[in-house]
Specification:
- The structure is a single chain.
- The protein is built from nine helices and eleven strands.
- With about 230 residues, the protein is α+β, with helices and mostly antiparallel strands.
- Helix 6 packs across helix 7 and helix 7 crosses helix 8.
- The chain is globular and about 55 Å long.
């Protein structure tokens, strides 16, 4: 595979943004392509943390499961993000589970190979630190949201995050209301009520398993993200 193809495969992956073409080629050569169908588990909590997974297309839900069977979705990973980095760095078991929300194509990089690349490429250490810093910031923000935001605001904020930085007037989110409840940290009934209110105001509409956001600016205001 040539350098341009390697760069394309890893385009936008923060952890590898500082690497030269040779290092990127090594990553692509060592990574194993993986395909996951909707609803398929990539790994479960407690599994060995043996690989870093780079999402190329599709979307993956990262979640924890309570002893009662209830699920709390921590975040949704889309291209060009990665998942499994915490276990990859400390060698511990997976701290959460991951499930494909839609057809997903990914690349898995073994922990041994990853650590070898870190030792060979000091510039990669900066990217690793940024990645870990991003995780800490996200978890801190989630904790604050549960303290300072009411449920409708958390639902609005989750929807805004799921739209990414799209500039389109309408954005389709492949997430049903049960999954949105897991992500916002509320009951399905309460989240359905918030979604219903947003729909009446013309901010979104539901289409089966999909939510079509039609007024991102209004959702940002409801979530307190005017400057987002």
């Amino acid at each position: 595979m040539n350098a341009s193809a390697s760069d394309d495969l890893l385009s936008g992956v923060t952890m590898f943004s500082g690497l030269d073409s040779d290092a990127r080629r090594k990553i692509v050569a060592a990574a194993i392509p993986r395909h996951f169908r909707r609803g398929q588990l990539l790994f479960v909590e407690g599994d060995p943390g043996e690989s870093l997974i780079m999402v190329r297309t599709g979307a993956v839900s990262v979640f924890r499961t309570a002893p009662t069977g209830e699920r709390a979705m921590l975040h949704v990973v889309r291209s060009p993000d990665v998942l499994g980095e915490v276990s990859l760095l400390d060698g511990s078991a997976r701290s959460a589970s991951a499930e494909a929300l839609e057809e997903t194509v990914a690349m898995a990089l073994a922990r041994k190979t990853f650590l070898e690349l870190v030792h060979e490429s000091p510039s990669m250490l900066d990217a690793v630190m940024r990645t870990m810093g991003g995780i800490v910031r996200r978890l801190t923000e989630q904790n604050s949201d549960h303290v300072f935001l009411d449920l409708p605001a958390r639902v609005a904020k989750a929807l805004v995050r799921l739209t990414g930085h799209s500039t389109q007037p309408m954005v389709t989110i492949e997430l049903n209301q049960t999954q949105l409840a897991e992500l916002a940290g509320g009951s399905r009934q309460s989240v359905n009520q918030a979604i219903g209110t947003f729909a009446l105001r013309g901010w979104l509409r539901t289409e089966g398993r999909r939510i079509v956001v039609t007024d991102i600016a209004a959702l940002r205001r409801r979530a307190g993200l005017e400057d987002y």
